[in-house]
Amino acid sequence: MDYKDLDAWKESMKLVQLVYELTQVFPNEEKFGLVSQLRRASVSIPSNIAEGQSRNSNKEYKRFVEIALGSSLELETQLIIASRLKLIKSDHQVFEQTESVKKIIHGLIRFLKKNS
User: Fold this and answer.
1) The whole model's pTM is what?
2) What is the DSSP letter of 30?
3) 1 vs 67 pLDDT, higher one
4) Which of 9, 16, 40, 87 has its CB 3.0 to 4.6 Å from that of 82, i.e. a possible disulfide?
């Protein structure tokens, strides 16, 4: 299966788009701070899913998917910080999308553990 067919990749790409749209309205002083961190973490998720699929074993693939999961948790933490700083609302849809991506990635990790 091509990585672009995976729900984990598709949903994390939606998350990247949400993060970029969301951070366009952040204050300029956050451009090299929180904006950069949020964007980097979000881009890391689908990137690691894609790179992992090119590996020669499910064990290696699983490691990259675990890194993607770590990036999703990093992103979630940064979103909470942005919310506490009143840069975004705590009920913004990006939180729901992040949670969805985390659940899908957990499922992919379980699948890869069973098949390694």
Assistant:
1) 0.95
2) G
3) 67
4) 87
